[in-house]
UniProtKB/TrEMBL annotation:
Organism of origin: Tahibacter aquaticus
UniProt protein name: Phosphonate ABC transporter substrate-binding protein
Lineage top rank: taxon: Bacteria
The keyword Signal appears for this protein: yes
The keyword Plastid is annotated on this UniProt entry: no
Matching Pfam families: Phosphonate-bd
Alphabetized PANTHER family for the sequence: PHOSPHONATES-BINDING PERIPLASMIC PROTEIN
Signal peptide span: 1-19
Key words, A-Z: Signal
Amino acid sequence: MRLLRLAMVLLFASLPLHAAERAAVIATYAYARYDRAAALQPLATVLGEALGQAVQVRVLESPRALAAALREGSVDLAVTNTFVYLAVRGDAHLQPLAVFDVPAATLDAYRGVLLARRDRVTLTTLRLTDRPLRYAQVIPGSTSGGLVQDLFLAASGVNGSTQLHARYSGTHEAALADLQQDRADVAALADAPWQAAQRASTAGDVVELWRSPPIPPGPMVCRDAGRIDCAQARALLLNLQHKAPDALAAVVAAWSEAAGATRLVPVREPAYDALTAGFADAAAGRAVLEKLL
C-alpha cells in the first residue's frame, strides 16, 4: 500500500501543472442537427496549448442553460447565440471577445419569421384572441425561432403569457411541420426553412405574418477572473484564421448563422441594441426583453 501511494504521488508530480489543475470550460448549447462537442474540440485544443491550461468542452441542453452557466461561473468561455448574449451582456463579470464576420448574404438570410395557418390567424386576431393559440417555437432560448418573434409580438400589443401557449418543436423545420400539420396555430422559426418550402411549393396552408430584420450572430463570451485569461483568448480568437484555420472552420460549420465566415472580429454593440428598436419607448423594450430572457 505504501508503494502504491508513493507511485501515485510520483505520477501526479510528473503531470504538467495545467493538467493537475481544474480544467477550464468552453461551452455552447445543443442543437439536433450538429455535433457541437466535436465542433468545439479543435478550438479547445488550440486554446489549451496557447494558454497552457487544460480546456474541456461542454454542451448544455439549451441557450437558457448556457446563459445560466455563464452567470453562475461554471463556464469560462461560451459560443453563444444572440439570445444568450442579450441575456448576459449586462453582467459586469462577462465580456464579449469576438463574433463571426459573416458575409452580407449570410447576415441577410439570418432572420426569423412568424407564420400562421391560412384564414385562421392574423395579427389582428392575435391581438384580440381570448383563448390561447398553439404557438410552435424551436427550443427554449432560440433567437430566430422564438425571441425575435416574441419581441415583435410584445411591441404589437400581444400578451404572450395569456394569448399564446408555447410548445417546442426541436428544430426550425419541425416547427414549420407542426404548423403545416395543424399541431400549431402560429409558429416561430428561421426564415431559411420557410423560403425553402416556398421554393419547393410545399408551404401548404401557411402564411407569413412577419419577417424580422437581419439578426446579428451571437459572440464568444468570456468570464473575467475565470480559468481562461480573457485578454489572451481575445487575441487568439481575433487571429484564429491565421493560427488555427481548421479550428475556426469546425466551429463555423456547426452554426448555420455563421455560414461563410472566415474570421472573427470585435463585437459591435449597436447591432444588438437594434433588436428592441420596435418599441417606441426604449425602457419598455428593455423591460420586455428582460422578461423574455
